[in-house]
Amino acid sequence: MTVIVVENVPPRLRGRLAVWMLEIRAGVYVGSFSVKVREMVWKNVEVGIGEGNAVMVWRAQTESGFDFLTLGANRRHPVDFDGTPLVSFFPSPEIIGL
Prior knowledge:
Protein name: Type I-E CRISPR-associated endoribonuclease Cas2
CATH architecture: 2-Layer Sandwich
Largest sheet: 5 strands, antiparallel
Number of helices: 3
Helix content: 25-40%
CATH class: Alpha Beta
Number of domains: 1
Structural class: alpha+beta
Pfam family, one: Cas_Cas2CT1978
C-alpha cells in the first residue's frame, strides 16, 4: 500500500494523483502499486509540487515496516537515527521570535 499526503499543491497535481489513487480525504491519496509505478507517481509529484509539500509512505522490508519520502518546505523533516527513520520537528517561527 502507498499513501501520499499533499498540502498547498496546484489543483492540476491533485487531479493527476486522483487518476492513479483514491482520494480518501482532501489531499490524502491511497493506492497499491509496484515499485516502478510508485516511483513514476512520485516523479509526477516532484514536477507538479509548486510551492506545496508532500509525503509518501509505503510498506517496506524495514524494521519499522514502512519507508517514506518528503518533498517541499515543512516543519517536519526526516532524519536517520542509526538506520531507523525518524521525524524531527522544527519549532514554529512565532515561537523562536522570527
